Amino acid sequence: MGRFLTATRGLGRWDWTDWAAHLYLILGMLVMFGPVAWLGLSSLKSESGLQAFPPTLLPYEQSSVVVPGRGTLKLFRVVSGEHAGQELGELRRMGLQSQLVDPKAPDTIIRLKLEEREPVTRLRAAWENYSELFGKFNFFGYFWNSVFITAVATILTLLVNSMSAFALSKYRFSGRDAVFLLMLATLMIPPTIVLVPNYLIAATLGLTNSPWGVIWPAVATPTGVFLLRQYMLTLPDELIEAARMDNASEWRIYWRIILPLSAPALAVLAIFSVMWRWNEFLWPMVVLSRSESFTLPLALNAFQGELATQWNFLLAMTVVTLVPITLIFAVLQKHITQGIASAGVK
Amino acid sequence: MNPLAAFFAALMDLPERPMRWAQQRLSGGRLGWVFVGPNLAIFAIFTFLPIAIDFHYALTGGTQLLPADRPFVGTGNFSSLLACTDYLDANSCTRDLFWHGIWNTLRFVLFQVGLMLVFSLLTAVVLNGKIIGRGFFRAVFFYPVLLSPVVVALIWKWILQREGILNAWLTAAGQPTTNWLLDGSWAFFWSVFVSIWAHMGFYTLILLAGLQAIPAEINEASAMDATPPWRHFRRITLPLLMPSVLVVLVLGLIRAVQMFDEVYVLTGGGPGTATTFIVQYIYKTGFADQVRQYGLAAAASLLLAGVLLVLTLVQLKGMKRG
Amino acid sequence: MFRAPALAAVLLAAGLTAAGISQARAGEIRIACYSDGNECESTAILATRFMKDNPDIKVTMNQMSFKAIQESLPVQLAAGQGPDIVRTTDFGPIARYMLDLTPYLKDAPYWESSYGPVLDWMRTGPTDHGIYGLMTQLTISAPIVNKTLFDQAGVAIPKAGATWDDWAAAVKKVQVATKIPFGMVWDRSGARFAGPALSMGAKFFTPDGTPAVVDDGFKAIASRLMTWSKDGTFDRDLWVAAGGGYRDGFPDFQNGRAAMYLSGSWQLARLDKQIGDAFDWVIGSAPCGPGGCTGMPGGAGFVALKDSKNPADVAKFLDFLAQKPVYAEWMVMTSNVPANVQLQKESLPFKLSPAGTAAMKAFVANAALLSPLSYRLQGAPISRPIFGAMTDRVSQAMSGQMSLDDAYARITSDVADAVAAFKK
Predict the structure, then answer these.
(1) Is residue B188's pLDDT more than 60?
(2) What subunits make at least 3 CB pairs under 8 angstroms with A?
């Protein structure tokens, strides 16, 4: 197999560094992707299954048996004593004793010590973690809010940032460099430190509890301006001069010539913007306080009550939150990784 | 053309007339102001104005939120934050949590940025070699970058908790289990580890692109000279990669100093104050405490912003020289 | 240069978002709610019935996390953007935004006579006689005991009147005999800590009402906690883990890792549902000390807010919930101890297992042991900063970051700092 692959790819003979490199990558793959896979598997476990230690790899659940005249009983296997090996249904527990019946002979009650029995489990995925999630919560409402905010904010980000980058790369005006530095400086400001004043401003502008309250503050990004400006600097000025000769307006030059040519950088910024908005948490939590305007991460957070954390729903919801972005990535991964890589060095 | 694209094109033609009007009235490059206008306005409203309000908060006290209701205290908030008998011992300071935050952040930045640089460089070099399925591995290493900090923290919390899978493995291997997030040193280790896990892919891509930009002739030339690989890497590859490394350093440093969500959801800043970072202190003081001291939070924010500014300027200087 | 584009953008933003502002409609009541179990869901069921009888009023339930309510509500209220009613345990910080329902209530004396002791918790002081909301339950902290483990160890569960030292010795015996990791686990919570402190004789306030947290009674329980956490009797992990905030000890108790769990009556539905027949559990009587045998009362309440456009409708809805038959039904749905004094004397038809029913009885019995000081501490606006300082600093001492004496000094200065900030 190894020889076949190397032969077809024309990579020549493998020395130890090649083996070490592949070993490193496979280990890395386990570390990078294993935790996510474990999350997915865990999200299919029932609430009591999640509490089990040691955790099982696959979701198990205690089997039950219907015994005529006794109802549905939980099934146990007897591990020692005269009934060893039998599978019995438990009627009730009295202190350290358990009262069980054989489903085939439901009239005789068998009394055992607790440690003489162990639960019979079977493999079953707790899909109800997901179905109850959809039933209990307005999932599609949250989903739509997230999609709306992500899509609109991304379009506006591209527009506003590219206009700015166009001016900063293709015009000469006094104060231009100062503006650019000022914008870059905002990169260093942790969002947390302007949280409280920003809320006051959003409230004054009537932006609270509206998706626009999340969208407007997000559309001017220093990273976007920087990225697009650096890319536009590489576009030849002759193009613009030629268009001006044809008496094209500056707006036309911007949107018919510069924008299409900046497509690769715009694509990278679009990906970033989708990522940022889809995952954004702290600011939406502050600005959106009505459940009908919640985004997915906020709904995810709402599962953590003061006194109880419902891990089964929390895990299921986490999976649901990361599925869309994972799908987008799976389809576009080549463009995304290459785009970001090329933008990073420019 | 499909209707959506047509609609979009028509929409984008709308500013044509007002822009022409502006163009006729603004000479030279001053039309640039119109183009940067929207962006700058949003920055002004949601970044610069809040910072100005932060200055007001920092100079006033009490627990009232509305700026007009707050009594003036001068530099009281700053002096309270900076009051220490021994600056190296956080416990000797009036605001001990602030100083724990500073020292922890410093340690975190040192380890996180350093180790992340090492690992993303290593990964990039490996991926730059003759690798089967390079695109696949590149995607795998990048994947965690897409996840939200809350999701990242929840995933690792689920693995590291006392009844988590890591401890289950240790038990199965006959090793004693550890409460990973309850021991100060381990909790700090995992904060560093998880943040590297979540961000490494991004920096790997930047470095990989830098590596691939190195002309093939250079590598071939040194292969002909039979330069040992390590020497080749240190003498030739690394210097040529320096611009990419600097990008990684600057971005990584800024992010590490601002670290908050992931570690906050993962450890809550504990055990004790072992993973309480400076931004968490600000968040706690101004937003999560029972008594909200916005003035203290704003003063700490401004101090942090000042430090970041100096840090970046120094780096930019270094970058220009390099 | 700078002003023109900024102004333009403000206008632009304002224009574009005018559509986004949702005006409260006439007759609409918004409730910001969080659930410990099914509190919001069951309130929604009752609200549907209420709306049928009052078609002009629309009740909207917003379920949020407790943390979101606690962190963003004060900011929203200060900006005039709050809901009409909020469910919270934390009344102090929002006291100035509360709506006095008295003028809107048909029968205010009914509220006084039925909910008297807990109405004070929402008031700012002895001169305040307003009615600001309805407690959704009364919670009582008490030890929850894993009877199966005690039986296996052959140790008798300490009876009413047993001291904290008796309890510590008993759970230690169980811990050793059954080889479990801890003797007891407490939720990481200032209220949980306060109960034992009061039992040990802590006073928390000077006679004139100034907070004075660290006294001999306080030190008695804090130093014991240190000893217990060092010798493994006490599950210190839970306390040391977080940099701040509440931590739930339930998973440790559920997994049989501790013989005794200091928590409270709000865990009843969970105990009943999740422990099932894994082991037998009973509610103990609050352990004693020189200061009595008290736990801590508590609970969440629906608080009416002043900015509401429809105060009369808010009052009407809360009044509907407060009526004895509706309130009783509500308590049965949520398996909670009623805050209604009359209902506390009756036995409600809770849908619980035999163990759950016995536990409910035991919680109500514990309610009779609560000291007057415990009610006062719970109701004092300064109690939350006190609770926060106690847990955080004692945890730091447990983690070895500072000595217990340093922790005492920090608690005193933290509380003084909070008092000073409140006064400004």
Answers:
(1) yes
(2) B, C
Nearest CA to CA, how far is A230 from chain C (Å)? 24
In this structure, what token pair is assigned to residue B314?
Answer: 């120094």
Q: Counting every residue, how long is chain A?
A: 346
Kindly list the residues from chain C whose CB atom is less than 8 angstroms away from the CB atom of residue A216: 13, 17
C-alpha C296/C-alpha C313 separation (Å) is 33
With contact defined as 3+ CB pairs under 8 Å, the chains touching B are A, C
CA distance C206 to C158: 33
The owner of tokens 């409140």 is: C422
- pLDDT tens-digit profile of C197-210? 999 999 999 988 88
Pick B33's closest partner by Cβ from A173, A192, A334.
A173
Least CB-CB distance to B38: which of C9, C243, C424? C9
How far is it, in rounded angstroms, from Cα B104 to Cα B159?
A: 24
Rg (CA), chain C: 23
Residues in C touching A286 (Cβ below 8 Å): 72, 75
Structure tokens at C127: 């001169």
Give the lowest-confidence range in A51-65, B209-223, C125-139. Answer: A51-65
For C149-203, how does the pLDDT look when each residue is reduced to its tens digit (9 = 90+)?
A: 999 899 999 999 999 999 999 999 999 998 888 999 999 889 999 999 999 999 9
CA–centroid distance for B186 within its chain: 22
Structure tokens belonging to residue B49: 């104005």
User: A113, exposed or middle or buried, with CB in 10 Å at 0-12, 13-18, 19+?
Assistant: exposed
A37 → chain B, closest CA residue: B155
- Whether residue C93 lies within 8 A of chain B, CB to CB, comes out as yes
Do residues A21 and B131 lie in contact, with contact meaning Cβ atoms separated by under 8 Å?
yes
Q: Which single residue is written with the structure tokens 């306390």?
A: C239
Strand A105-113, strand A117-119: pairing: unpaired
Counted across chains A and B, CB pairs separated by less than 8 A come out at 281
The two three-digit tokens of residue B317, written as one number: 């200087």
pLDDT (tens digit per residue) in C326-361: 999 999 998 888 999 888 888 888 888 888 889 998
Produce one character per residue of B262-290: b if its CB has 16 or more CB atoms within 10 Å, e if not: bbbbbbbbbbbbbbbbbbbbbbbbbbbbb
CA distance A239 to chain C (A): 29
Neighbouring residues of C188: CB distance < 8 A, sequence distance ≥ 6: C238, C239, C241, C242, C245, C246, C247, C249, C391, C395
Burial of A245 (0-12, 13-18, 19+ CB in 10 A): exposed
- Residue B72's beta-bridge partner residues? B60
Are C5 and B38 inside 8 Å of each other by CB? Answer: yes
With tokens 């990008």, the residue in question is B247
Longest dimension (CA), chain C: 84
**Interface pTM, i.e. ipTM:** 0.81
Cα–Cα distance, C357 to C81 (Å, whole number): 42
Average pLDDT over residues C230-252: 82
State pLDDT tens for residues C279-302: 889 999 999 999 999 999 998 999
User: Which residue intervals of chain B are DSSP H helices?
Assistant: 3-13, 16-25, 31-43, 49-58, 76-82, 96-128, 134-142, 149-160, 165-172, 184-212, 216-224, 229-232, 238-257, 261-267, 278-283, 294-321
